[in-house]
Amino acid sequence: MRNHTTLFLLVIFMSSCGGSSTVIKQNAFEKGKIEATTVASPEEKKKLDITIAILPFANNSPDKSLDSAGITLADLISAQMSSKKGFKLVERQRIERLLNEMNLGQAGMINQTTAVQIGKILGANVMAFGSFTTLGKKTLLTMRLVKVETSEIVGGVTERGDDVSNLDILAENAARKLSDSLTAK
Is 184 strand, coil or helix? Predict the structure, then answer.
């Protein structure tokens, strides 16, 4: 009986080590013989990096001098996203070249269909695009996330700011929401 207890404790100890599990067959102690199988635990599946292209934001405000702010917002959000794990970003110059080739450089010419086409060409699996507007001194940014493979909208971000001169804060908050919405999927 003492041998059985010692062997049983040894099997339990072995099963608690190294991330593997030990299965003891029913009636394993009959006839003084232990039958046990050790099975390595499956490795956790690695999450694939999300390759995202952030397109310039369309300026929907009446102040057309803010058109360049759409590129600045995309750059700021990209910079914030580049420091987050699990994301790869398409370089803005690559996006800009493609937009110019497709004659979509004008703000507001990008919709869900064109975003998906752009994403396929750039090798992105998620496209982020949207617009911003100013209402008095307030700024409102909206962004849609489209899964390139299926063309479905998989998320969205809305961010409000107190002043158009604080685009960095607006972008930082939008990047955090973007990251959270993509990693929650």
Answer: coil
